[in-house]
Write a structure and sequence with these properties.
Length: 362
């Protein structure tokens, strides 16, 4: 069949999509501006710093608002075709309803690709910069990433266990630290030191001012004091104690590395796995939104632009709330991570496809 008509349908999507993305993102930016304005004014920070903060948050807001913009694009494109009689004309010309819908679904997939690229390559790094400006510079929190921890215990490799009163992941040192090294299931060496420093060049932990205790087969100790002791412990600081998880500031690749490091020391990774599935599902929300929009227009068969905009806002936030609820259930282990990430999309997609079938699109 002639490809002119599908291209015409696709072009009718992008104008409302770009407009909706700009409007919805602008609303979030204004909300963030007024929410943070008081803090910026109290800190005597210049307008340039506030501008940088909002600029760094922009990609994150674009990621969040892309599905809503997709919904608006579908609503405007389809309702426009119905009001101008193009939908009926297409059917009279031999075009099936689903064939006329396919260009819009393809556009929603392209919007999802745009969202995925922004979500993984741009938004996390810039969002963390905005957090540094707000938490680090304005609020003066040196440990806003929670890299300094107290009274920690962890595994530092096979049969190596460490406890420390203070672990500083920013400066890569530990204070009042005890390292127990086991061999064949029994305690072999104990290092009790005032301080331990990570030597990046040697990739080893250096202990200072402490006692080295060796145990024989009968666990009889023999101790010796040291000023400096170069240990064989080679696990780097960022694999021992991790920074606070900021969901908006990590990519899927970052999460996979984090899960690997947490699993190596036996820590729980439920939140990280749930977040991975949520991030994988997020771009697919554009396709689901397209199905929702098509169902609403083809079942209602009409509606003004104001009504379409209102529907986009209401349905978008209901969908967003369902996604957040699913993630919360996953973090609380009320749902498996896979179901928490993809469950809301599958539910909305099912009802949308059912509605489209009722509208005789298939």
């Amino acid at each position: 069949m002639n490809k002119t008509f599908p291209r015409y349908i696709a072009r009718s999507f992008w104008g409302p999509f770009i407009l909706g993305l700009g409007v919805f993102t602008g609303l979030l930016l204004f909300g963030s501006f007024f929410d943070r304005l008081n803090t910026f004014m109290k800190s005597s920070a210049g307008g340039w710093l506030l501008g940088r903060y909002l600029l760094y948050q922009l990609p994150y807001f674009l990621v969040k608002m892309t599905p809503m913009a997709t919904l608006l694009g579908i609503l405007f494109a389809l309702s426009g075709m119905l009001s101008r009689g193009e939908w009926k004309a297409g059917m009279a010309g031999g075009w099936r309803p689903f064939e006329m819908l396919k260009p819009l679904l393809f556009c929603s997939v392209m919007a999802g690709v745009f969202q995925l690229c922004l979500q993984e390559a741009v938004a996390p790094r810039l969002y963390m910069r905005s957090e540094f400006i707000f938490e680090g510079k304005l609020r003066g929190k040196e440990n806003w990433q929670e890299l300094v921890k107290k009274d920690v215990s962890f595994s530092a490799g096979e049969e190596v266990f460490v406890t420390a009163d203070v672990f500083d992941g920013r400066k890569n040192f530990m204070e009042r630290v005890v390292a127990n090294i086991y061999r064949d299931g029994r305690l072999f060496v104990e290092i009790n030191a005032r301080k331990a420093l990570w030597q990046a060049a040697e990739r080893r932990w250096l202990f200072e001012d402490g006692v080295l205790i060796n145990y024989d087969a009968s666990l009889k100790p023999s101790s010796s004091r040291f000023t400096i002791y170069q240990s064989g412990i080679s696990v780097p600081p960022d694999s021992l104690v991790l920074e606070r998880l900021v969901p908006e500031g990590v990519s899927i690749a970052d999460l996979l590395r984090r899960i690997k490091r947490l699993s190596a020391v036996g820590s729980a990774v439920v939140s990280e796995r749930t977040l991975i599935y949520c991030k994988l599902a997020a771009p697919l929300a554009n396709l689901v939104m397209a199905l929702i929009g098509a169902m609403m227009v083809l079942l209602i068969r009409g509606g003004s632009r104001i009504l379409n905009f209102g529907l986009a806002v209401v349905v978008g936030f209901v969908f967003w709330a369902a996604i957040i609820t699913g993630q919360s259930f996953g973090n609380a282990e009320l749902l498996p991570p896979l179901a928490a990430g993809f469950g809301p999309l599958a539910l909305f997609a099912f009802f949308s496809l059912f509605g489209l079938k009722k509208a005789r699109v298939f």
